[in-house]
């Protein structure tokens, strides 16, 4: 089984015995050893580990202290720990389980029992890792526009609310951009929906190249995009919007779309002080400015 295992025991002979048993039964692809709980914590911080075998009774930093310290390492908190103990009292077993141990094996242990318990917890850990990976993919799907890879409208509105509150609290400026691709329906009608998708992706990629790492951009719906520019005043937002507009007008396409020019219209709203009551007001103002940009001939930027 491909797994990384940490063995913590003050007895070197005990560590080597456990190592040999697991290796002889093809369990584990890498092994790490520690002579006490403190060394175990250091190893845990430095190594990716799938399972921990930890002696309970060790001088100084014992198994109980190790379990207590492990709880404070968030990224390692879910790694299963099998306690090894020569003290078979129910009190110690219960205490170990309550402090985060997943299981225990009594010394002197039966190699077959050790192997069985290790296999069980490695399988559980593998299933948990797969579940976390699936949940992460689901979160990504829920938060991301599948075509462009940008955040979706739900994420954008949530982030805008946070930025709105932060901006008001700190007395800073915040700019919000609504961007719409001009005559996008005509592009779809003339070249097909695949060409329309290519345009959407090209526009999204171009916008990403023109903003700062801490700015946020999302596909707001259809051919409409939104950009959050924290700590940016009106002049700064206009510079960004004009740069995006110019870069998109320079996009080049191949095949049937060769020579086709894509342009955008942009509406900007600016939060300073308490000129807007909510993030919804900020969105509406940018939307109205976008409408004026379209009414004014498109391929232009308007400020609310």
Summarize this, please?
By secondary structure, the protein is α/β, with parallel strands linked by helices. It has helices at 12-24, 37-46, 63-70, 90-98, 111-143, 153-170, 184-191, 193-210, 234-249, 279-295, and strands spanning 4-8, 30-34, 51-55, 81-85, 103-106, 173-181, 216-221, 224-230, 264-272, 301-303. It has 2 domains: 4-142, Response regulator (Rossmann fold, 3-Layer(aba) Sandwich), CATH 3.40.50.2300; 153-303, Reverse transcriptase/Diguanylate cyclase domain (Alpha-Beta Plaits).
Fold and architecture overview:
The chain has 304 residues and is α/β, with parallel strands linked by helices. The protein folds into 2 domains: 4-142, 3-Layer(aba) Sandwich (Rossmann fold); 153-303, Alpha-Beta Plaits (2-Layer Sandwich), CATH 3.30.70. The protein is built from 10 helices and 10 strands. The strands form 2 sheets. The protein has a 5-stranded parallel β-sheet with strand order 2-1-3-4-5, with helices on both faces. α4 links the parallel β4 (81-85) and β5 (103-106). The N and C termini lie far apart (62 Å).
């Amino acid at each position: 089984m491909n797994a990384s295992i940490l063995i913590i025991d003050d007895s070197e002979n005990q560590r080597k015995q456990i190592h040999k048993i697991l290796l002889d039964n093809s369990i584990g692809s890498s092994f790490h050893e520690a002579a006490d709980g403190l060394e175990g914590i250091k190893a845990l911080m430095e190594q990716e580990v799938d399972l921990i075998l930890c002696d309970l009774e060790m001088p100084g930093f014992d198994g109980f202290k190790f379990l207590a310290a492990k709880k404070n390492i968030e990224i390692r908190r879910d790694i299963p720990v099998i306690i090894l103990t020569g003290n078979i009292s129910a009190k110690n077993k219960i205490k170990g389980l309550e402090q985060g141990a997943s299981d225990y094996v009594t010394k002197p242990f039966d190699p077959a029992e050790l192997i069985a318990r290790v296999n069980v917890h490695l399988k559980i850990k593998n299933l948990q890792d797969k579940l976390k990976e699936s949940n992460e993919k689901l979160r990504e799907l829920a938060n991301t526009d599948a075509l462009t890879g940008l955040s979706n409208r739900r994420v954008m509105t949530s982030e805008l609310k946070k930025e709105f509150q932060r901006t008001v609290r700190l007395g800073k400026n915040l700019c919000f951009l609504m961007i719409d691709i001009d005559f996008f329906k005509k592009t779809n009608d003339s070249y097909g929906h695949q060409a329309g998708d290519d345009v959407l992706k090209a526009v999204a990629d171009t916008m990403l190249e023109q903003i700062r790492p801490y700015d946020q951009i999302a596909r707001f719906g259809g051919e409409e995009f939104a950009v959050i520019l924290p700590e940016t005043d009106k002049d700064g937002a206009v510079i960004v919007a004009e740069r995006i507009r110019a870069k998109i007008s320079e996009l080049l396409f191949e095949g049937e779309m060769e020579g086709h020019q894509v342009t955008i219209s942009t509406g900007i709203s600016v939060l300073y002080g308490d000129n807007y009551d909510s993030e919804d007001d900020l969105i509406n103002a940018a939307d109205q400015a976008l409408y004026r940009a379209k009414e004014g001939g498109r391929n232009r930027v308007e400020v609310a």
